[in-house]
Known about the structure:
CATH architecture: Alpha-Beta Barrel
Low-confidence stretches: 1-72
Strand order of the largest sheet: 7-6-5-4-3-2-1-8
Radius of gyration: 21 Å
CATH class: Alpha Beta
CATH topology: TIM Barrel
Bound molecules: 2-acetamido-2-deoxy-beta-D-glucopyranose
CATH superfamily: Glycosidases
Shape: globular
Structural class: alpha/beta
Number of domains: 1
Number of strands: 8
Largest sheet: 8 strands, parallel
Distance between the termini: 33 Å
Oligomer: single chain
Amino acid sequence: MSFLRLPATLTLLFLLASTLASVGAQQCRLVRPSQDLAPSPDNPFPSSVPGSGNVTSGSGSGSGSGNGTNTTTTLQPFEYGQAPVRGVNIGGWLVLEPWITPSFFNATNNTNVVDEYTLGQLVDRDVALQMLQNHWETWITEQDFVDIAAAGLNHVRIPVGYWSVPITSADTNYTTSVDPYIPGAWPYLLKALNWAKANGIHVILDLHGAPGSQNGFDNSGQRTSNPVWGVNPANVSRTLDIITFMAKEVGGLVDVIELLNEPAGFDGSNWASVISGYWQDGYQAVRATAGNSIKIMIEDAFLGITSWENFLTAPNAQGVIMDTHQYQVFNNDQLGYSEDEHINFTCTLKDGYSSYVDNNIWMVMGEWTTAMTDCATWLNGRNVGARWDGSINTGQAFGSCEGYTGNSSTWSSSYKTFMRMFWEAQVDVSEAASGWMYWCWKTESADDWSYQKGLEGGWIPQDPSDRMYPSICD
Ligand SMILES: *[C@@H]1O[C@H](CO)[C@@H](O)[C@H](O)[C@H]1NC(C)=O
Ligand SMILES: *[C@@H]1O[C@H](CO)[C@@H](O)[C@H](O)[C@H]1NC(C)=O
Ligand SMILES: *[C@@H]1O[C@H](CO)[C@@H](O)[C@H](O)[C@H]1NC(C)=O
Ligand SMILES: *[C@@H]1O[C@H](CO)[C@@H](O)[C@H](O)[C@H]1NC(C)=O
Ligand SMILES: *[C@@H]1O[C@H](CO)[C@@H](O)[C@H](O)[C@H]1NC(C)=O
Ligand SMILES: *[C@@H]1O[C@H](CO)[C@@H](O)[C@H](O)[C@H]1NC(C)=O
Ligand SMILES: *[C@@H]1O[C@H](CO)[C@@H](O)[C@H](O)[C@H]1NC(C)=O
Ligand SMILES: *[C@@H]1O[C@H](CO)[C@@H](O)[C@H](O)[C@H]1NC(C)=O
Ligand SMILES: *[C@@H]1O[C@H](CO)[C@@H](O)[C@H](O)[C@H]1NC(C)=O
């Protein structure tokens, strides 16, 4: 197999790598205090969750029926490759991100709390747990799933951190301590699986943070210039035990398990081969544990889909979906695009996407946005500025951030028109593959990244098959 061809987007990779280094460089290295074993979540497996621990086909639910009261119906398995995946990411819920919920981070009264790792280190554990529980209970509720279904969407992708997975010592020969992280989110995931089921929504369960950090981003749980997942075989094996546990506990309740979000394939050649080995081992582990119906999602690891030709294809593997993420805001080349160039660049992806699904496996654009700047406050990390306005100094700036993020009531109508076009172009190219999931469903104050605000503001249609610009990529 030729999955490690030289990436076509080498420049982009260097930019990404230097981005990671520059973000990481601004972080103080924090000393890890010795701590007692982390508390276990209360009642991690409420018996009210149907199918918990059991493997069934599909995720079980009443297609579009009901408001949460009807749990007797079954959802037909989603026909990947036939109908497009149309979905949103439930970002900033079970894995915190400072830019999605800045008020949570402000409420710590400690500017060194930049991610969940430092939250666990620097805030009194009881206080932090209480803050987290309040957040888990309020940031996403069943109403969100009702609204997601009403927006014509058929999928959610739910990120979880490894520290939230209540693996026991019977399930692993590695430690079950998640120190300094604060566990406790798992029961909320189980609730969400019920809400999804009751509202006819299919679920992609996404392991978003792995032991040692797979990319050093705050959204892996730990913002660090030295992520170590890919250089410690023990961290990778521990992750396989965690994935196996997830498959065992909720394999019958979700449509897809995504083995890991955004591992740093750009971080030296050894990471890329560790990642491809993990995809293969993770595939086997989930298949062996949860059977043949569940779908397994892998990720292009910043290497581009062309690096993953003939990888986990039939007849050696089946039911595998590639996830590719498409942002145009994290390097100066793309920040410099005019509005037309953003649309044009998007449209150039279409042929590659459709030939990938024709010749390989299903492929979903699992994260993307209508934002065209990195202006959203703390998008690049808490207390970190933006390349757009030069508050991250890259030697180049593009303008003021005013009118690009925050409350959409301050935006021009031409900007909103552009976002509608950008939304349609990205939907058009990803539906030439197997579909898409927008990042993300809601944000506290960055409307340019919020699907919910887009629906309210009209730059995202109420019915995702509506088109104002049907020939945008023709
Ligand atoms: C799972 O299935 C097994 C075998 O059918 C059954 O004994 C067990 O009670 C089920 N567990 C749950 C949580 O439904
Ligand atoms: C939920 O659906 C049931 C059955 O259709 C209905 O009787 C009930 O009023 C609904 N409840 C709410 C809160 O909408
Ligand atoms: C639950 O779903 C079944 C099958 O679709 C339907 O026959 C039944 O009326 C629904 N019950 C409620 C309370 O909505
Ligand atoms: C958080 O704190 C920063 C810095 O003090 C402030 O600019 C921002 O408005 C605060 N955000 C929220 C949501 O409280
Ligand atoms: C932060 O400060 C406020 C105001 O003094 C206080 O009410 C709150 O408990 C503090 N939060 C933490 C996590 O210490
Ligand atoms: C743990 O080690 C024992 C002894 O080598 C082995 O039999 C068992 O399968 C291992 N458990 C896991 C979860 O890998
Ligand atoms: C990652 O692996 C290293 C080396 O074996 C180990 O010291 C460390 O505890 C592991 N980290 C986690 C979070 O499991
Ligand atoms: C976008 O692509 C079209 C068609 O290839 C071309 O005519 C147009 O000049 C391009 N616009 C920009 C800004 O690159
Ligand atoms: C956004 O601005 C509008 C108009 O000024 C205001 O009504 C609304 O409350 C603001 N939204 C937020 C989240 O601050």
